[in-house]
DNA sequence: CGCAACTAGTTTTAGATCAAACGATCATCA
DNA sequence: TGATGATCGTTTGATCTAAAACTAGTTGCG
């Protein structure tokens, strides 16, 4: 490895961000996965600033919509997060009147989750913002979208 | 949406994890990206328990190795994390004698970062563990690896 | 020169996340 | 029936992260 003789020539037009070698990292799927997720997350948040759109909230509400009566535990597994992180999200959603929890009489440890009408309306609004973001991603990956999702899904399924 | 008549038949061989509909989420690249990154990260951590292998540490050391004399700010950009999160990592690495910081005389605000011999040795050990993990990912994606990384890289480049 | 605007790194504050421990409830089986 | 062990949801503690405020140093320009 040559000592990367830093070209600090005084006339070089200030290389705002000098190129950085990623080295072995550049060949790691895990690393690029993190970078991409991070970039996606940040872009999402940028758009989200407008609405009260937090990614976690959106995912939770969307899953409840698709699975009315789902329990918090199943919800946590579907959304890929620990069950303990679901608790505060649900509390916030309930406080804001967007979801309703009802005890399941057959198993009084569990709760059944539903969207309220206000929740349905809110989800519809959030969906538009989210769809806009994902259209951006769609444009980036083009016709490889299906293949990309299939690969990501396989990673999740295999690694548990 | 039919009320998902939950098949709670008493003789059904306990459906450990009843199928959950992801709904619109299932078509979102961003969502699958998060799930996959999460699964990868957790699998990594599982293996990492053995060594003192924290993903952040590993990435930082690998980038320093590939770019001796790099500054913390450039490092934060390359690793996709905020500069303020780099500080404690560097402090820990320096405390453990794995990196060295030296002031840059040309700009006394900046620090140049290097791996110490102990750091080089440690990185080599960590690399083996990391490589093992990424081989797992390689096996999952098979010959699509190159394409997958290209897609992820394009996402990062486009979304900034 | 000397002031204003900018940059590098740190500290502080706030939020998200996981893991482990806990109370309440349920299932199993003698 | 009654005790043991499992499961659901919550709480607590630790770690990781970003954003904003701050200090020290630098650059530009009158």
Q: Nutshell version of this structure?
A:
The structure is a homodimer of 160-residue chains. With 160 residues, the first copy, chain A, is mainly alpha-helical.
The most extensive interface between chains reads: A-B, 71 and 71 residues
Under CATH at level 1, the class of one domain in chain A stands as Mainly Alpha
* N/C terminus separation of chain A: 39 Å
Spans of chain A of at least 5 consecutive residues whose pLDDT stays below 50 are 1-16
| Gyration radius over CA of chain A | 21 Å
Q: How many helical elements of chain A?
A: 6
* Fourth-tier CATH superfamily name of one domain in chain A: Winged helix-like DNA-binding domain superfamily/Winged helix DNA-binding domain
CATH topological fold name of one domain in chain A: Arc Repressor Mutant, subunit A
The main β sheet of chain A shows up as:
2 strands, antiparallel
Give the strand order, joined by hyphens, for the main sheet of chain A. Answer: 1-2
Q: What oligomeric state is this?
A: homodimer
Helix content of chain A: 55-70%
Give the mean pLDDT of chain A: 85
Question: Total strand count of chain A, please?
Answer: 2
Assigned CATH architecture of one domain in chain A: Orthogonal Bundle
- Percentage of β-strand residues of chain A: 5-15%
Order of helices and strands of chain A: HHHHEEHH
Which class best fits the helix and strand makeup of chain A?
mainly alpha
The global form of chain A is: globular
Organism (chains A, B): Jiella endophytica
GO biological process, one term (chains A, B): response to stress
GO molecular function (chains A, B): DNA-binding transcription factor activity
Protein name (chains A, B): MarR family transcriptional regulator
